[in-house]
Amino acid sequence: MMIWINGTFGAGKTQVAYELRRLASRGEGKRSWAARQIDRCLRAFDGEMAGDAIQTDDLTIPQVVESIAAAVGVPLAADRRGPLRRRWDRFLALWGHIR
After folding, report:
1. What is the rounded CA–CA span in Å between residue 5 and residue 18?
2. Would you call 98 exposed, middle or buried from its count of C-beta atoms within 10 A (0-12, 13-18, 19+)?
3. Contact in structure between 56 and 67 (CB atoms under 8 Å)
């Protein structure tokens, strides 16, 4: 399955991708989960690619993550982090994205 997250600069695409991957992997490890998706993603390019647009203008990042997961049928683990840990994780995602 290929999920294309599109938007303007600073809209939160990277944070949404990190959160979606973290909650969808259910603790399996980031690298092992991603590695198992490669074949599935490559097969998606062979077939017709369908697209669903989700209007995210008034949604928070957690709401966008839940909307995407619901649209593609990916079950998410419960987010058991506190507010401080969520903020710290968001900072780390932003910091890792700076070039």
Report:
1. 11
2. exposed
3. yes
Sign of CA dihedral 10, 11, 17, 18: positive
Choose between 84 and 98: higher pLDDT: 84
What does the H/E/C string look like for 32-65? HHHHHHHHHHHHHHHCCCCCCCCCCCCCCHHHHH
Element (H, E) at 91: helix 83-97
Quick one: which of 80, 65, 67, 88 has its CA closest to 27? 80
Task: Band the pLDDT of 3: cuts 50, 70, 90.
Answer: confident
CA distances from 96 to 27, 49, 53, 89 (A): 21, 30, 27, 11
> pLDDT > 70: what percent of the chain?
74
Residue 15 has pLDDT above 60, yes or no: yes
